[in-house]
Design goal:
By secondary structure, this protein is of the alpha+beta class. The chain has ten helices and seven strands. The strands form two sheets. A five-stranded mixed β-sheet has the order 2-4-5-7-6.
Length: about 500
């Protein structure tokens, strides 16, 4: 397991007390609090808020317009009734006058042809009164006047009927006074006054409704105009803020793209530099290792034990440095190497890796459990490097066990990916250091305990991430470890 060497915590040096700068945000001007609050919203939320306000405005304006329109319709209906009432009052007044005039002529002459208007009024008056009651049923004052009018007309018609009877039975002299003054003079005067009141009241109500309708019409027009203006202003404000946000996002995106390109170029330069340096270091190391071997061979017997140890240390260090350079070359190559995405038979891949590691397995008692693995989509060479690193780690960190137990298997992560694990019963690790496992040059064990360069697991994570997968690990001290990674299933690709 490649990870960081545990170090003892050191006591931090005393820190000088310096004034802490005030990094609190500047107060937002009162005039700009609404814009500041609005600009913190996402663009989707702004659009929804803007159109929500517009819709609310439309609903309010529509409600008020509907109310004003309802008032106009109701006033129009009442105006129609008022005009019908005024026309009816005129007709009733004319009929009463004609009937009264004909009645007086009959009383004087006895000619029944003059009673034609009277008899017509008597026949039509119930219909007139019914119609009159219907036209005034929504006004209590007018309804009261109509009731009084009914009583007065009934009294007048009764008085005139009595006068006709007297004329027929007793002649002109019996009704001479009535013929000269009118059979129901007092009732007729009251009827005329009452009808004048009915007419005047209805005229006043009509004038008020006309004024109200005109006001409602003006208010509706003004409200619609104001609403349209407010909605235009609101939409313009929303557009401005959205446009500002989009412009800012484009600027940030352009800046991020530029920085990303610069970072990519810098990474390529760094990888090229690392590759070049690592490659150039191999020749001097070969010279060191070669000349150390020649020195040991030619002057081995002349050297004392201490010198031989020194020479062996030089040789071992050169070999370790060579391995480190090889791992660095692999690490840097992984960032520049093009991926070949194809269907990979993991079962066959694991068999090949175990065959390649057979020299490292000599003299070891290892119980292998190799479960069937599904085909995945990926680069065969890169995935081979993953299994080489993880299986070699499991072999290395179980070296202290009389019988090592190593399991390679998989679980279904989802319909589109598989989770693969390599489990061992080795020395394990403390989970508090799990975040350091996959870092470059990170080790959890000393080099004198287990050899390593601290790059293998970093290569594993880099390769898996390039495949779109994840890497993680679980373990406990002296209880083994499990290293896991995910890969896309081959059957999900088209």
């Amino acid at each position: 397991m490649e990870s960081v060497t545990q170090e003892r915590p050191t006591t931090p040096a005393p820190v000088r007390s310096e004034p802490v700068p005030d990094n609190s945000p500047a107060p937002i001007p009162k005039t700009g609090w609404l814009r500041e609050w609005f600009t913190h919203w996402s663009i989707e939320r702004r659009v929804l808020a803007g159109f929500g306000l517009v819709f609310s405005g439309i609903v309010v304006i529509s409600a008020i317009s509907y109310r004003n329109t309802a008032v106009l319709i109701e006033n129009s209906r009442l105006d129609t009734k008022s005009h019908e009432l005024l026309q009816l009052l005129g007709s009733v007044g004319e009929a009463l006058s004609a009937a009264e005039s004909g009645h007086r002529r009959y009383l004087v002459t006895g000619d029944e042809s003059y009673l034609r208007s009277y008899r017509t009024l008597v026949e039509q008056m119930p219909e007139y009164l019914r119609y009159l009651r219907g036209l005034t049923n929504e006004e209590a004052d007018q309804q009261s006047r109509v009731e009084t009018l009914e009583r007065l007309i009934a009294r007048q018609l009764k008085a005139e009927a009595d006068a006709i009877t007297q004329r027929e039975n007793h002649g002109y002299q019996a009704v001479r006074h009535l013929a000269l003054s009118g059979a129901a003079k007092n009732e007729l005067e009251q009827i005329q006054r009452l009808m004048t009141e009915l007419d005047s009241a209805e005229q006043r109500a009509l004038v008020l409704r006309v004024a109200q309708s005109a006001g409602s019409t003006k208010n509706t027009i003004a409200l619609l105009g104001l609403g349209a203006l407010m909605q235009l202003l609101l939409l313009a404000s929303v557009y401005f803020l959205i446009h500002h946000d989009v412009t800012e996002r484009r600027r940030v995106a352009t800046e991020l793209q530029t920085r990303g390109e610069l970072l990519e170029a810098a990474n390529k330069e760094l990888e090229a530099f690392s590759y070049s340096v690592s490659h150039d270091l191999r020749a001097p190391l070969r010279h060191i290792d070669g000349y150390a071997a020649l020195l040991s061979k030619s002057a081995g017997e002349a050297l004392n034990d201490k010198a031989r140890r020194y020479l062996q240390t030089i040789s071992d260090s050169a070999k370790q440095m060579g391995q480190l350079i090889d791992d660095l070359l692999v690490f840097s190559r992984m960032g520049r190497q093009d991926m070949l995405r194809t269907t990979v038979n993991l079962d066959q891949l694991v068999k090949t890796v175990l065959h390649d590691l057979r020299l490292d397995l000599q003299g070891r008692t290892i119980s292998w459990t190799i479960q069937p693995l599904p085909p995945v989509l990926g680069d065969p060479a890169m995935l081979r490097q993953v299994f080489v690193n993880l299986i070699a780690n499991a072999v290395k960190f179980t070296a202290t066990r009389p019988e090592a137990e190593i399991t390679v298997g998989s679980t279904n992560g989802s319909s589109s990916e598989v989770q693969i694990f390599i489990r061992d019963n080795g020395v394990g690790f403390d989970m508090q250091y799990v975040n350091k496992l996959f870092g470059v040059f990170q080790r959890l064990h000393r080099n004198d305990e287990f050899e390593g360069t601290g790059i293998g697991l970093a290569n594993v994570r880099r390769i898996i991430h390039r495949h779109g997968g994840r890497t993680w690990a679980e373990g406990a001290p002296d209880q083994g470890a499990t290293f896991c990674f995910s890969l896309p299933l081959a059957r999900t690709l088209r």
